[in-house]
Amino acid sequence: MRTGDQVVQDLPWRWGTQGTIFLIGGLGFMFDAWDVALNGYLIPLVGAEWNLSTAERGWVGTSNLIGMAVGAFAWGGIADIVGRKKAFSLTLLMFSIFTVAGAASPDYVTFCVFRFLAGIGLGGCIPVDYALVGEFTPAKVRGRVLTALDIWWPLGATLCGLVSTALLPLQNWRLLLLVMVLPALLVFWVRRSVPESPMYLVRRGREAEAREVIDRLVQRTGATPEPWVLPDKQDVPTLSVRAMLSQFLALWTFSARITSAMWAVFLTVFVLYYGALTWLPSILRAQGHGDYAAFMVTTLMTAVGTLGVLISAWLVEAVGRKWVIGLSAPLAALALVLFAHHLDLPSSAYAWIAAYGLVIQVTIPALYAYVSEVYPTTLRASGFGWASTVSRIGAGFVPVIFGSVLWPLLGLTTTFLAVGVLVGLAVLWLAFAAPETRSRELDRIA
């Protein structure tokens, strides 16, 4: 007799059932993108109001990204202990509260503190959302669905660019924050209706709740009802610092090769991505572009990423996750190097930054889908969370280091080339260290 998690993964896909979870999860992911992209638009406005140096301006992005790093491992671990549903809602609520507080900041230091705290809340969205959506999704379409979930990222970043550009004449960065919070609170309210993950309930031995959720899924998808049993119950840790440390150690005990590969690729890819996203408006302004032109080029870079996500969603099932990541990540780095090299030729520079925006959004969705599959259910959210934490800690210091050291001393071309070499080394290790996950059931991959 099959287990409950096998039944869930063999259900037919229905937009009115699993698709609803996909949409609600994606809306939270959209605000993650909006907030990260907003750093690039805030830096010139906040810097002008408080007369900040280049290094000080970098902390606008760094404080937010470091908060997201803390939130990624904290909320990922919380979701594996107390369940996906609670974490699913609370991440957005925390983000909304501290974003409003940030908009009311009386000085630069207070602003950075509130951006850090808002980042802690939002940092949990990606690992929790991917764990929840992946655990509702049938195995045969899981790669495509998890990859397509990333389409909310360029949509959120593009929406941020359009709103920021439209509000630019007001020169009011506080309004940029408040406009983002209103729809986020609406999504928080909607998230409260989402059921707990059936795979989480099954693995935790909560039979009555699991049967209620799974039976409803079977009915709503039109599948043939069948008897199923619970797998062996797994111990449920209590929420504590010791439990979260145990999760960290368990990731390496489960597979040091997989964990090291995930961390290496996440770190290098997102150093590349956040470095470009955070500083692109300032780079363009330094080349003599006005605020409006700088904001619109940045918006172009994020908008073409929507097409990249769609390409990625097709490729991950056609050729596999590892091939997509291994080829697209170095190509994205190359496009960014060529953008920096052609900055004195605006038309060429715009073409290369658009190419970068397209290709990097082929890489990131495949990477998110992949890390959501290689860990078992008991470690899925924390595995994603720790990988995301490592990437955001590394990328979090990029705004400061880039603005005060790398850009002034090495120049843009050499800086992006060095990061590209690191990306290449990371994907080579991924090719040898981790398994392909295409069309395989969760918990039966590694």
UniProtKB/TrEMBL annotation:
This is Putative MFS transporter. One of its GO terms (cellular component) is plasma membrane. One of its GO terms (molecular function) is transmembrane transporter activity. The chain crosses the membrane at residues 21-46, 58-75, 87-104, 116-133, 145-167, 173-190, 261-280, 292-316, 323-343, 349-371, 383-410, 416-434. Pfam families: MFS_1 (PF07690). Residues 21-438 form the Major facilitator superfamily (MFS) profile domain. It is a multi-pass membrane protein. The keyword Kinase does not apply. Keywords: Membrane, Transmembrane, Transmembrane helix, Transport. Its main location: membrane. It is found in: Cell membrane. It comes from the Bacteria. Gene3D superfamilies: MFS general substrate transporter like domains (1.20.1250.20). Coiled coil: none annotated.
